[in-house]
Structures are given as C-alpha cells and as structure tokens.
Amino acid sequence: MTDKESYIRWQNIRITQFGFANNLIIGLSIAQIGYIVNFIQSDNLVLNCLQKKLFWFGGGLSLVSIALGIFVVFNRLEDFRLTAKIAKNRESNIIESLETDRNKSTKLGKKSWNAFIWQTSTFIIGFLLLLIIILIELKSTIT
C-alpha cells in the first residue's frame, strides 16, 4: 500500500468516524432530554429552586447540542458538495475557482470541527447539570 493509498484510507475512516460521533452525540442529547422530562413527571417529585434552574439550563444546553449537531450535518454536506465540485473541476482542468473553492472547503471543515467541539461540550455540561438534579433528588436513597 502506497502512502497515498494509506492516507486516502485513513481519511475515509476519519470522515466516517466523525459522522458516527456527531450522530452519537445527537442521539445521546435527545435521550438525555427524554430521560429528564420523564424523570420530572413523577407524581411525588417537587423540584427546589436550584433544581429548576439546572433543569432549564441543562435542558437548554442539550437542545443547543442537538442544534449544533444538525448544523454540523448540513455544514459537512456543503463541504462534501464543494469537494466533489473541486474534484470535477480539477479533472476537467477548470482552474479559475479551484483555489477559492479549496479555501472555502478548508473553512467549512474547520467550522464543522469547531461546531462539533461545541456540540460535545454543551452535551457534557448539560448532562452534568441534569445529573445534579437527579442526584439531589435521590440523595436520601443513595446515601
């Protein structure tokens, strides 16, 4: 296997894993919202002021995580479309917009990675805040 083939193979794996990780965080964020909504619907549950604030902030961060994940999906689709255009133009020896398109593709890629980092961060922070609600409520049960 040549260096070029190895790079192409690993680039394909990276692209696939990035999509998988993005979808995983979206799915976990949706499940997180579903779980906490189900948790607060208990008949004998009374949330204190701190728990209510944590619920709204943590739930809001989970929604932001989902929105960022959807943004990543659309941004990556635009990047793939542009990359296909670059490849087609390169094969056809159309070089007028090649450098501009490459720069735009690079920016789209960076934007995807930054959004993914924010998506993951908002998911983790939201998870921790919602976990605090549950731990406060179950304090007497687990201690």
UniProtKB/TrEMBL annotation:
<feature type="transmembrane region" description="Helical">
    <location>
        <begin position="20"/>
        <end position="42"/>
    </location>
</feature>
<feature type="transmembrane region" description="Helical">
    <location>
        <begin position="54"/>
        <end position="74"/>
    </location>
</feature>
<feature type="transmembrane region" description="Helical">
    <location>
        <begin position="115"/>
        <end position="136"/>
    </location>
</feature>
<keyword id="KW-0472">Membrane</keyword>
<protein>
    <submittedName>
        <fullName>Uncharacterized protein</fullName>
    </submittedName>
</protein>
<keyword id="KW-1133">Transmembrane helix</keyword>
<keyword id="KW-0812">Transmembrane</keyword>
